[in-house]
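Protocol step 4 of 5: obtain the predicted structure for the target chain.
Materials: sequence only (see below). No template structures provided, no constraints applied. The aim of this step is simply to have a reference model before the mutagenesis design in step 5. Sequence pasted as it appears in the construct record:
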Amino acid sequence: MDATADQASGLLKSLANRHRLLIVCQLLDAERSVGELAEMLGIRDSTVSQHLAVLRRDGLVAARRDGQTIWNSIASAPAREILETLYRFYCAPEERGEPAAADGAAGGRETC
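Step 4 output (structure tokens):
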């Protein structure tokens, strides 16, 4: 039980950063490159790369190389399920009875 508590604690620590949470919200829809994430979130490529390294280290994000592009995606079913629950409660206004924003974040999920 201690091992699973440590695992859950690590996952929650990773998500406790605003930029990392926004990154994984965008990865729920599709795998994305550093450049795409940086453009969608309005932050520098280097900042996205640093946060992705933490997310990969903690097992939330997986990377796949295709030529010179590295595609990032959600790494596990448990992580995806937790993230989708967070998204549903905090990032999906239409599911809370609020109108959705007319201009979503560059074709991805509306950010939190």
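Step 4 remarks: The chain has a mean pLDDT of 85. Residues 8-87 form a domain with the Arc Repressor Mutant, subunit A fold (CATH 1.10.10.10).
Proceed to step 5.
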